[in-house]
UniProtKB/TrEMBL annotation:
InterPro entries: CHP02284, DUF2383, Ferritin-like, Ferritin-like_SF, UCP029477. This is PA2169 family four-helix-bundle protein. Residues 7-115 form the DUF2383 domain. NCBIfam families: PA2169 family four-helix-bundle protein. It comes from the Bacteria. It holds the Pfam family DUF2383.
Length: 150
């Protein structure tokens, strides 16, 4: 596998998690009853959509096909959240906790991509690191929201 193929491979996998993030926040925005939270989740959908576009345009620049699907694990997780929210009536804390779990998965996906740092072009590493930092900030904000939801 050459460097371009490796870059495409790493970014396609990462983008499945970013697409999961979009779907997860769409779900959260739909089920939350808190207008401030809904607004924040919509901001995160927009942020994630930008991240996905950035990744896909980078994939294309390396000769790969854009990644539009989500992970199998993400689909299962959202299905479970649908069932759970219908049972618990989507309490705010449960929504926040599931978002936090999803964001922690995103962190793992960014770290997995950065494990290939040596094989990736510097501009790709910088893009991934920038997105990882934004995800980390989201984790912090969600933890604050969780504390105030108690």
């Amino acid at each position: 596998m050459n460097r371009n193929e490796k870059t495409v491979d790493v970014l396609q996998e990462l983008n499945q998690f970013v697409n999961d993030r979009i779907e997860g926040y769409k779900h959260a925005a739909k089920v939350t009853k808190d207008p401030a939270h809904q607004s924040y989740y919509k901001d995160l959908i927009n942020q994630s959509t930008k991240f996905s576009s950035e990744i896909n345009s980078t994939i294309s620049s390396f000769g790969g096909d854009p990644e539009t699907s989500t992970t199998a694990k993400g689909k299962i997780f959202r299905g479970w959240m649908d069932v759970k929210s219908s049972i618990t009536g989507s309490d705010e804390e449960a929504v926040i906790k599931s978002n936090l779990r999803g964001e922690e998965w995103a962190q793992k996906a960014y770290n997995d991509a950065l494990d290939h740092r040596g094989e990736l072009p510097q501009n790709v590493v910088q893009m991934v690191e920038k997105q990882k930092q934004a995800s980390l900030a989201t984790c912090e904000r969600l933890r604050q929201m969780e504390k105030s939801a108690d």
